[in-house]
Amino acid sequence: MTQTSASGAAPSRALALPALSENRVARFATIMVLYFLQGVPAGLTTVALTAWLAAKGATPVEIGAFVAFALLPWSAKLFNGLLMDRFTFKPMGRRRSWILAAQGLMIATLLVMAALAPTANEIALLSGLCFVLNLCAAFNDVAVDGLAVDIVPNSERTGINSVMFASQSAGIASTSVIAGGLLMSGDITTTALVLAALVAVASVFVGIFRERPGERLTPWSNGTASPECLERQQDAFWPIITGVIRSLFNRHVLLFLAGLAFAQAPFAFAGSVSPTLAVQHLGFSSEGYSNFVAAATLVAAGTALILPVPLVFWLGLSRAVIVQLAGVAILCAAAGLTLPNWQGDTAFMIYDCAIYALSLSGMITLISWAMRICSPAVAATQFALFMASANLAQSIYSANSGFVIEMGGYSATYLFMSVTSLIGLLLCLLARVGDEKLVTNHDD
């Protein structure tokens, strides 16, 4: 029997695949693929290219500036959210048209990179291309996050966040290995073409699922906007802006934004500081460092899948945040204090892997709370505000990481991460993260 949507439109039998809003497996699979694809620009920008530049003699300040500029679009996600909550092609759902457009532009940017083939000496051109690539990924990220807030029940949100970040980590790891190996030959054209093909194939899979029953699969196919889309999609900017502003009048939201920002230092360190420490001081090759990061990222992905859900179940969300952020602070302090006595690269690999894995797990826990306190009507904008705070902090840390190294050495950067993690923990506690009385969205 052909399923009929609430709007009365029945999908074609040939394309009657389950809608994401009604099928848990399709929902998880699609979000996994989309977050895997977000790992492509992240892995290329913060791992493969930084290691390649370090091997070519770029300084910590140059690499920090490259990463900071390339990742800057992630700080503008609030603007992206405003656009998505205001405009969409309603017959295809609230988020799906944005997701497919972002995927297409990501492919186009990689093809342009392949055609221009910038060298390691053309850091400005490389930064510009990576900026555009991350701009596409940031639009995609906001759309996917808005999709998750729209269609994922509260009971699945910690699990879906684990899947999101684990998949993104797998994407970063895969891109690190692929791009790291290809860049060893100096062939950035082949690297970009291979990644473009990867994004294209995955995008085809994403494109076969509707958000809700009865919607269009493509702009030219049959279908109508769902009642949920018509109800939640805003027709003017002002209601969106006022809704988000109202949320900012809540001191707990402001404290949470600040806590997220302070907790980002380990991620910035991984992209901006670790490459020069590993390649220029510990003897890693460019490909060797990319392969190490791939392995460490997979460990982090495994941790993201296994740790957050049972930790929140056993301890509650608030205590889970305490354990994870305090653990990151302790690991960073230990690394900073023992770094002068490191022999070889073993200690670096252990600390780097453990800090990243626990930081990622903690971030998943915090993001699940961010989703809980978002209103569906302005979900893309409100959630983007949370993420923009985190991303802007990462860019600021990356831009200044080289100066921290020059002033205090690599030990100082680890100690800096320890302090910022503790400040982030304190702010999250003051924000009452995990207190269900603060939750305004109880859709199940």
Question: How are the secondary structure elements laid out?
Answer:
Blueprint: H1 24-55, H2 60-70, H3 77-86, H4 96-116, H5 123-151, H6 157-183, H7 188-206, H8 227-232, H9 237-248, H10 251-262, H11 265-272, H12 274-281, H13 286-306, H14 308-315, H15 317-338, H16 346-372, H17 379-430
Helix pairs in contact: 1-2, 1-5, 1-6, 1-7, 1-12, 1-13, 2-5, 2-17, 3-5, 3-17, 4-5, 4-7, 5-17, 6-7, 6-13, 6-16, 10-17, 11-17, 13-16, 14-15, 15-16, 15-17
Major sheet size, sense and barrel closure: none
Order of helices and strands: HHHHHHHHHHHHHHHHH
Find the structural class using helix and strand composition. Answer: mainly alpha
Q: How would you name the CATH homologous superfamily?
A: MFS general substrate transporter like domains
How many structural domains?
1
What is this structure, in a nutshell?
With 444 residues, the protein is mainly alpha-helical. 73% of the residues lie in helices and 0% in strands.
Descriptive tags:
444 residues; Growth Hormone, Chain: A; 73% helix; 17 helices; mainly alpha; disordered N terminus
Structural write-up:
Helix content is 73%, strand content 0%. It has helices at 24-55, 60-70, 77-86, 96-116, 123-151, 157-183, 188-206, 227-232, 237-248, 251-262, 265-272, 274-281, 286-306, 308-315, 317-338, 346-372, 379-430. The longest helix has 52 residues, at 379-430. It is globular. Mean pLDDT is 84; it is low at 1-15.
